[in-house]
Amino acid sequence: MAVTPRVLHVTQPVDGGVGAYVATAAADQARRGWRVAVACPPAGPLAGELAGLGVPCLAWAATRAPGLADAGQAARLARIVREFGPDVVHLHSSKAGLAGRAALRGRVPTLFQPHGWSWLAARGALAPAALGWERLAARWADLVICVGAGEAALARRHGVPAELVVVRNGVDLRRFRPAGPGERAAARAGHGIPEGTPLAVCVGRVTRQKGQDLLLSAWERVAARDGAARLVVVGDGPLLPALRARAVPRVHFAGDVADARPWYVAADVVVLPSRWEGLPFTALEALATGRSLIACGVPGISELVSAGVGAVVAPGDVAALAEALLLRLGSPSLAAAEGSAAVALAGGFDVGRSMDALASCTLGLLGVGTGNGRRCSRSRKTSAERGFDEHCQMP
């Protein structure tokens, strides 16, 4: 193997958490001196970000939803792989996982990172089909990288016979940091939020997964009992027009923003009402900024949110979500205390350590150590035989 590894990242999502993760990983590996490229749809923010980083973007026209075009997308990806000649292919999210594993079938060392399992997003008859595919395709990935212990546990529970590793998502602790009173006042003034107004903020793509529709139902209850509280929904997505049309009182839709940190700083509490998750970046960013976090108790959330840093409510429980919001919006001291505890918790999720662990796992496929003291050990037993192990540990 060459001293300088060639790594091809493949992704269909070019925005949101997956797009941000791919950009971060590609930039980190390029800084290590690796030959890195990303195959992705050329339209969208990721291609521009990669250009700014000096990372080649190889055009791969792929659609989000599965369908008749999948075979052609897999064939195009196979051509890209042949032309780039990678030592390792790193597949991100469901569509790249489908096309890449179908096209390569283990002929090139392959990492697959689901960023949230495909069967959780599927509905109706597609859900068991997606699970069946993951069980079948597990043989065509040398490692499946889970972004949190909850994601790995789901694979084990559903009988996915993959070699699982856990490399937890990380957050840039220098960028997402607690704000002082002056910065908070400036953030509120910049967004037209009066000082003293209770403010909840939700950041993320406006999709069924992220559950903003559930949040608006909860907010109707909040607005009926707290005449001063405001909710800001930050992000864009397919459900945004329908949510705007609901005209729920004292809800502002900020749309997509280049930097969500000022909204975290302005908030009293951050809310994440997701129906499913991997290990969400928005949650890590909110905690690192020192904000109380209210979230639905889906895998990936339970390892982040506990008593003392916020509240976990049952998925889809609109009444419980409303009560958790009312409690913290009505008690600034409680929200502030939880925010202080959140900062300490977020310290264990530094993005640099996460990228070190990812590099260790990538080089481990090629029999190369990183020399940084973090190892990615592997076992030839399947997860069903041994359960999952958190191989890539971040101390």
UniProtKB/TrEMBL annotation:
Q: Which UniProt keywords apply?
A: Glycosyltransferase, Transferase
Q: Which domain of life is it from?
A: Bacteria
Annotated spans, Disordered: 376-395
Q: Which residues form a coiled coil?
A: none
- UniProt cross-references to Pfam families, sorted A to Z: Glyco_trans_1_4, Glyco_transf_4
Biological process GO terms, please? Answer: carbohydrate derivative biosynthetic process
What are this entry's molecular-function GO terms?
hexosyltransferase activity
- Basic and acidic residues: compositionally biased ranges: 382-395
Q: List the protein's name.
A: Glycosyltransferase
Species:
Nonomuraea deserti
